[in-house]
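Hey team,

Sharing the Sugar phosphate isomerase run so nobody has to redo it. Sequence (281 residues) first:
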Amino acid sequence: MPKFIDLILISLLMLIPSAHGSELKVSIQLWSVKEELKVDFKGTIKALADMGFQGVEFANEFGEFANDPVGLVEFIRSQGLEISGAHTVFPTLEPDKIDATLAFYAAAEVPLVVIAWDDRAFDPTTVWQTIADLNRLYEPVTQAGFLFGYHNHAEEFAPYRGKTTLWDHIANSTPESLVMQLDAGWAKTAGINPESVVRQHPGRTFAIHYKASSPESAGQTRPIIGEDTINWAALIVANSEVGGTQWVVLEQEVYPDGLAPLDAIRLSKRALDGFLQTAER
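Structure output:
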């Protein structure tokens, strides 16, 4: 049964037409404005919608809608936005919590559930535990109607057995339709070209994080898209050609020169829009 479900999901993903340039939809990872959401959830979402984002990716902060997933999706839609996905962690999917977690996401019409972080994946001796949990949860999550995925930090690009990386090992040891949500900024921090990662795992990047840099690399270049060292044009082509990418999720974790988070996001969004428009031509 799990293999049959996997084949269905792979087939559905293959039916989705490749997006090019501005056809890629742009979402915002709400971790970028985590403090602002705590103060004014609705106002912050409205400000992001005004910047031209097409979607939001949740990071476990729902403001006044924490117990009202239907109201949450209605409000998001009222701002002209879609929900591109949600980040969570393994404990929310344990037997005593998984039903409530997935019920909330289903009512909120979340299409993609992503494991945002698991430090067991940072160590060659414990990465198997991460893989085991991804494989164990794959069937219940996908049977509930979601895409299921895993998100990287820099540590997953450490060598694994001298031949590959921990990230590659996770990808090679999980179902082909498990979304490998690459974080371009963390890959770059680890000295890895994000474009090559997308091409190495074709069809597995339904959603990707576009981030100029991680906190650790702040100061080397200004952590604003277009002012950093990632080749965004090449990455957009890779996402369009082989990634199976539908959502580019902008994330802003560093706010240089005293910029307010929304102002830093606005600068990165403006540059990203330019790269996407150029790619369309």
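The chain has one domain: 22-280.

Ping me if you want the raw files.
A.
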